[in-house]
Amino acid sequence: MEKVDILGVKFDNVTMDEAIMEVLRLLKNNETDMVVTPNPEIVQLCVDDPAVMDVINSASLTVADGIGVIYAARMLGTPLKEKVPGFDLASNLLRYIETGEYRLFLLGAAPGVAEKAAENIKAKYPRIDICGTNDGYFSDEERIVNKINECEADICFVCLGAPKQEIFIKRHIKDTCAKVMIGLGGSMDVFAGNVKRAPAWMTRMGLEWLYRLLSNPKRMGRMMKIPVFLSNVKKEQKKRSLEKVG
Ligand code: UDP
Prior knowledge:
The protein is built from 13 helices and eight strands. The strands form two sheets. It has a six-stranded parallel sheet, sandwiched between helices. Helix 6 links the parallel strand 5 (103-108) and strand 6. The mean pLDDT is 95. Helix 1 (16-28) crosses helix 5. The chain has one domain (3-245). By secondary structure, it is an alpha/beta fold. Bound molecules: uridine-5'-diphosphate (UDP). Uridine-5'-diphosphate binds at residues 108-110, 136-137, 159-162, 164, 185-186, 188-189.
């Protein structure tokens, strides 16, 4: 698949439909594959920490969560086809895995949230096989991996926030039977109905980040990575245009 490099993070240039098809293909593989959904904050985290960059770039599929990545790709002259938000990718996948062919494990968020998310998902997709759930506040990682394996999960939604979820997936990629593990940040809270998504008009205007900030001002500190990300993209844009001229 064609890759687009944004400050060192290698994104797959895919539409939402292509991303879904790719996950379904990975589910048929025998190995465990990691799917990641970086937003500008996570890209900047990778720039700041090469170890996190390596983990993110070891994923089998990397999609652009958020309009900021789409703008950056355009500014760098290597546009990405479409934004593929993690929550939307996961929601769309549910329709395809409802056949009962695949078992889904929900991992992450505060105690009780994954169970509530499972209830809501079941209400919408009654035939879905949710084989297990666990909150995201655990210290014994082996216990979690065993739990995923005992219920023979095929696909695991891992919602521990970035980069904790990607590091967890990478560390256990060889010991889990799940075919696909997707890092999905705060999506469990959205599936559970505890956090609302931005209204459609805000999403259309590329203001989802502002909605998230207004509904949770504690995000302010983390969001300071966004202007740093933008300034780095500007620098990279300049560098690339100088290279072209030279
Ligand atoms: N979380 C978790 N375990 C941890 C830290 C965080 O399960 O040790 C959960 C947290 O409860 C929340 C999610 O990870 O549900 C992170 O959400 P956030 O909106 O910060 O993630 P983002 O989508 O921005 O990466």
